[in-house]
Amino acid sequence: MDFKRLDQTRSSVGPIELDLIESYAQGKVSRRDFVRRGTMIGLSVPVMGGIIAACGGSDSDSAPAAPAAPAGTEAPAAAPAPVATEAPAAAGGDIIAGIQTGDANSGLDPVNMLDLGTYAVLSQSFEYLVGLGPDGNIAATALATEWSPNADASQWTFKLRPGVTWQEGGAPLTAADVVATIERMVEVGAGLAGVVSAGGAEAPDDLTVVINLDSPNGNLPVLVSLFNPQSLITPADYTNGTTLSDRPTGTGAWMLADFDPSAFRAKFVPNPNWWGGSVKLDSVTLQGFESGGTKVAAFAAGEIDIIQDFSISDGANLLQDDAIKVLRPPSSNHRQIWFNTQLPEGGPFTDPRVRQAVCYAINREQLVNTVYEGQARIANDHPIDPTLPFFDEGQEQRPYDPEMAKQLLSDAGYADGIEMPIQVGDLGEIPAIAAIVEQNLAAVGIKTPVSVTPNSDFYGEYWCTGAGWGSQPDTAGPGRPCGASAPIGIVDYGHRPTPDIFFGRALATDGDWNSSNYASSTFDGLFGDYQSATDVAGQKAAVGKIQRLLHEDAPACYPFFFNYLSATSSAINGFETTALGHLQMQNVTKS
Amino acid sequence: MSGTQEAGAPAPTPNESTEDATSTESEVPAEGKKQIRKEQFRVLYTSPGFIIGVLIVGFWIVASVLPGILTSFNPKEFVEAGPRVRPSSEAWLGTDKNGWDVYTRVIYGARKILTIAPISTAVAIVVGTFLGLIMGYYKGWVDEILSRVIEAILSIPIILMAIVIIFTFGRSTTVIIGTIAVLFVPAITRTIRSAAIAESDLDYVVSAKMRGESGFFIVTREILPNVTGLVVVEGTVRLGYAIFTYTTLAFLGFVGGNITDADWGIDVSQNYEQIARDIWWPSIFPAAAIASLVIGVNLIADSIDKAVNS
Fold first, then answer.
1. A50, A86, A191, B262: which could join B75 in a potential S-S bond, CB 3.0 to 4.6 Å?
2. ipTM, 2 decimals?
3. Nearest to A112, CA basis, from A286, A238, A287, A289
């Protein structure tokens, strides 16, 4: 170990960075976790490289904390994971990518979008403060070139990339634009509710943004990265509700040339003034598909070059096709079987024993093998991905135990069974999950006829309804953010590299996606501890308690994490994606 | 069809008591009437189309009443063969993505459609015949107003109309039955009305009026028996359409209820995308079941039509 070099670095960094370096030097965190965490808190690649070299270089980083990561979902930090290999660049060409059809109601509104189709379209023209790294994690590849926290991570400073200009008018991107974007996000929630308050962001100069937080938060960069898709940086005079099609602009590599909302088709041409240099293609067209099967058929027939995502049930054949490159970006994608823990009052699912019974009765292995055909990992009723450095592997996996479920039901006074429809949207494989869950639960005496609603109506009718939107009477209130959400239902959650969004929006009291109406001061306290922890040990301590609490309270069952699957034809090179549907086209070539 | 019936209208078979018969232009004695009926049934029973139709529909009726004698599985039972298995001796028509036996689901799926389609057709026939007779007999402003309403309804595409009704009243079995009935009433009304107009000008109706019979009596006891054949034909034809309409609504996800229940339309919609993967059996077999039932009913309808007009 090169102590001299290590000491040099030690003396030049803040306490949060120092803590991480010490942990790595003492072997408490693996190299992979060190790089991951270092990126998060703004350590530059040369600094991290120096530290790794000083500590003896290629030490044993091959054993990630995750026990159950299947082959292919995670790659070592330094290896380019979801990037297709480079080939001799052939300039020019037009590419068509098949994406999910976006929600027609919200339109191309960056701060209010909710679906992968719209994420893909808007992230062509607009960019994030924090971008995607080669390991599928965050990195300084977008509008911020560096960032760092203060001593307790209650204030973060971001340095903006110089020389970035807006497509419309050519004015430079300034800190005022970023501050205005953050203000808009705070206004609508957008993952910053409870993290930043109005007026929390400042612009001391044109290329510096300082974000003052309500409380310390060690993961803020994720919340302004592409993994919080609504954080796209838009011009200062954009307002909540302005859409890209109303006002085409952005700082990104692609300019919107044409958008047909009825077909959900967007055509982009290169931005000649993009800060990243020139792109290789002549145009990129994103075509929406209502049905996953049709999208796969179009891809298999060669009508589209890239498929944003496909379910295993539609596209199992693609996995065996040598002429197709399948991409599996790191994914904590999951489906949540939620329970309304508060309403109807006295209802069966307000009793935690009944909720636990459901979680025991679900045959996770059958779901993984039947619905996902093996392309998923069993989860343990919390949304924390086992590959995360702060995951507590000491917790026992909840088994499939129908007898235990029956016992819990009888203890709760429901020995004669329960009947309650399970509400699902008509999205991908979700009805198939519900079909199997229905039979699993029938075996222990819970009848849950499957009620399917078109996905466009589902969220307002059954998911987080009664919260001043949707068609239900306003039954929301403090501690009951989604008043009349269905007693039991299944909803989709996309990938996030840290569970902050899952905790803050889906589980925290008053979280805007909290369809469980889960109101636990214990959870809120632990979530606060996790957020303000600036070292892995502190995060792990809080997360371990959260894992056990969610197991006990069971506001939702989390039966599995599934692989996100995307693909390109073999003629496409340099394509990257995320499990949130971003299509990184900057380096793409077509041969 | 209404055209042929109007043309054939001068040959009604009055069904009244003897004093009415004296005033009827095409006077047919009771004996002759029976003879005609007998002849019509003979034509019907010897028609190959009718026999095939009855066999097909009969099979599905047995399936809907006693599915247990045709299959040993439960429609939601995860069978041993596993999911997505091709048709084989283990699972005759293969298994679907959930691991359910396709043959069993097709058998059990008959019940729902053979409940909803006949009930909604019956409702539509009763209402449509009643309205048609009223309009055809009274004519004048009653006819004018109802005709305009019916034309307005007919001008709206069927599926659009169904969506409007279902989204207004919710997705329950009762609403589905009502929706299909509402969709069919205008067409039935128009057919019966044109027949009733032709009938109401005939002498037996005129004489009943002169006897001072009430309008209700004349419509129900004089005209209705003379259009019964048409009503039966109309009913069977509409039944075929009702089956098709129901399965269309089920395919589009508008019928509510439990989507895991065996239902041909829902099964096709839940599985058709897998055809791209060459897993055709979970969607093709329910689709074939729909087709066979519609064909069976239409064969019967055609045969009845021919017999009535023979």
1. B262
2. 0.76
3. A238
